[in-house]
Amino acid sequence: MNPYTSYATGEPIADTKAPKGPIAERWDTRRFEAKLVNPANRRKHTVIVVGTGLAGGSAGATLAEQGYHVVQFCYQDSPRRAHSIAAQGGINAAKNYRNDGDSVHRLFYDTVKGGDFRARESNVHRLAQISVQIIDQCVAQGVPFAREYGGLLDTRSFGGVQVSRTFYARGQTGQQLLLGAYQALSRQIAAGNVEMHPRTEMLDLVVVDGRARGIVARNLVTGEITTHVADAVVLASGGYGNVFYLSTNAMNSNATAIWRAHRRGAYFANPCFTQIHPTCIPRTGDHQSKLTLMSESLRNDGRIWVPRAPGDTRPPNEIPEEERDYYLERIYPSFGNLVPRDIASRAAKNVCDEGRGVGPGGQNRRGGAAGSPVEGGGGRREGVYLDFADAIRRMGRKKVEEKYGNLFDMYERITAENPYEVPMRIYPAVHYTMGGLWVDYDLQTTVPGLFAIGEANFSDHGANRLGASALMQGLADGYFVLPSTINDYLARVPALEPVTGDHPAVAGAVAETEDRLRRLLAVDGDRTPDSFHRELGELMWDRCGMARSDRGLREALDRIPEIREEFWRRVRVPGTGEELNQSLEKANRVVDYLELAELMCLDALHRTESCGGHFREESQTPDGEAARKDEEFSYAAAWEFTGTGRAPVLHKEDLVFEYVHPTQRSYA
Ligand SMILES: Cc1cc2nc3c(=O)[nH]c(=O)nc-3n(C[C@H](O)[C@H](O)[C@H](O)COP(=O)(O)OP(=O)(O)OC[C@H]3O[C@@H](n4cnc5c(N)ncnc54)[C@H](O)[C@@H]3O)c2cc1C
């Protein structure tokens, strides 16, 4: 038996900060009970913020505006190039401008249900409440949200909901929101309140006397290793979907900041909860290093279908209407093409498994879980149509262009097919990670003084994130939640001893980092870091992707340590550590993926239920839908690190549902 799977179960953890009382009053109560730091004292505190995406950018700007001294990091050349800039479709808010029955409670309800009842009610309700403020804040900053004829902000619908609550700026919502946060951050940089370190990567966390007190970082241009100390550290370093190698994430998004924090004591929650997005451009071959998302907003007007008959290779416009299967509309008539992402993704996989996929076949080796009929993929066709012919007939091409023009252009540039004339082809791809560092209601991890916000934490989306909710959560965390809760930590913490570079905790973290980089350079093997990353990604997609099975996960858990061992024997990193060395950066990130992947598979193995993005083949209803096991698994799984390759300890946070009672999700 693999010793890694013999994990122990430790003390349960409780979210001790969420106040009792009516859910709608909890956030007000918490803010009132939280201690404040006197404005004059704030400038005496230094806060490190790692990341400048929507979560980090908004947090850094807001903390500096409050008077804290902020030291901020990103690995891009400019804070405004963070991965958040790629977000296309929109941001949710319970404004109810459409008067279509939306409310804070409905957004809360949809999010808890959409997350398959694996999120904490108090957090989700707060998120829904704050959503309304986010839109006001961003409008005040000048974010150019789309407007409708009457002047009100326009909205559209995203999956898993029956109201129209998604605010957008064409297909560039993330970019426009990030420019808003970036201008607020730039103001604080110019004012000297934020010390910005671009092109600098955090490689370790410094923990002194059990509290997060700083980071070890590497200047990516010169290779210089530096240390930075502070009174608190905030990780806003994004998600870890790139552990699968191919994903819709930016190429450089990685897990290092949160994984290194995990190794220093921060519990990692629900690592197996990965979101596979249904509308991505299908993979075309082995040469690819990146997948491209087509925004979920397209499902507002595009209709998804495949041929009724398996093996039908006729061009789409030669397949008559009665020989098409609009399978989402057929199986889920109430939500149709707007079912949540996990459901739409699995349905696409199912029709492709039945041999009804479209597009070129034989190129895509990625397949189903071990033992499934399509194990390894086997060259089947992986694609379904997303067809706008009806929408163009109904609204006219001009209107479709106005709504989705830039997405259509992007699709055509990548595929050389004109989606105004032939249906788009789409297939699910890894997109977002619901798992992340465990945080309490204050967004504090299990390491006092270490906070995690945005996609880096596990908090609000349960086992499946609804579309347009990541931007909402990142900005809620950064503009509103963290700036209130961090005060409480800083006000209560006993006077912190000054920490200098020769403190053993700092020197130890630096020595470990330098040693790791030296070892990577010294192997001098014959395989690139990328080749290991690709191999790991293939394994993860096959065994821990859209469908997981006991057998497949155990195989992956046996294989990952072998890849890790081979990595340390055969990796080749040219150049030196004292220069710009992207191979070294990559290798160091792969080291962390090779450990994180193991934890993801263990988490997936131990959760023998299906929920949200985690579909266990052994746990399905007779009609093939995901079957949750609430009695056994109504908890967040928070894992404690005990050493590389050593079985971690599982701590459970029981989930209590007082307002939205778990039911089998139905979108039919
Ligand atoms: C293609 C695409 C489209 C999307 N569209 C939408 C959408 O329409 N609506 C929606 O709600 N969500 C969308 N999402 C999800 C959403 O974009 C992300 O979840 C969100 O932007 C994450 O924001 P973040 O601030 O947490 O992290 P990121 O934007 O990923 O920022 C991470 C930051 O951390 C820094 N960083 C990371 N590690 C380190 C380190 N070790 N050292 C120093 N700095 C570090 C990076 O430099 C960067 O500044 C989309 C995602 C993708 C991939």
Give a summary of the structure in a few sentences.
Helices cover 35% and strands 14% of the residues. With 668 residues, it is α+β, with helices and mostly antiparallel strands.
Number of helices: 17
Name every ligand kind in the structure. Answer: flavin-adenine dinucleotide
As an assembly, this protein is single chain
State the fourth-level CATH superfamily of the domain at 277-430: Succinate dehydrogenase/fumarate reductase flavoprotein, catalytic domain
Proportion of helical residues: 25-40%
| Strand proportion | 5-15%
The major sheet is characterized as: 5 strands, mixed
Placed side by side, the strands forming the largest sheet appear as 1-21-20-12-18
Describe the structure.
- The protein is an alpha+beta fold and 668 residues long.
- Among the domains are: 277-430, Flavocytochrome C3, Chain A, domain 1 (Alpha-Beta Complex), CATH 3.90.700.10; 504-633, Fumarate reductase/succinate dehydrogenase flavoprotein-like, C-terminal domain (Methane Monooxygenase Hydroxylase, Chain G, domain 1), CATH 1.20.58.100.
- The model is unreliable at 362-377 (pLDDT under 50).
- It is built from 17 helices and 21 strands.
- The longest helix is centred in the C-terminal third of the chain and has 25 residues, at 582-606.
- The strands form five sheets. A five-stranded mixed beta sheet has the order 1-21-20-12-18. Strands 7-3-2-11-19 form a five-stranded parallel beta sheet. It has a five-stranded antiparallel beta sheet with strand order 13-17-16-14-15.
- The two termini are 42 Å apart.
- The radius of gyration is 24 Å and the shape is globular.
- Bound molecules: flavin-adenine dinucleotide (FAD).
- Flavin-adenine dinucleotide is lined by residues 50-56, 73-76, 82-84, 86-91, 173-174, 201-202, 236-239, 248-249, 253, 256-257, 293, 431-432, 454-456, 468-471, 474.
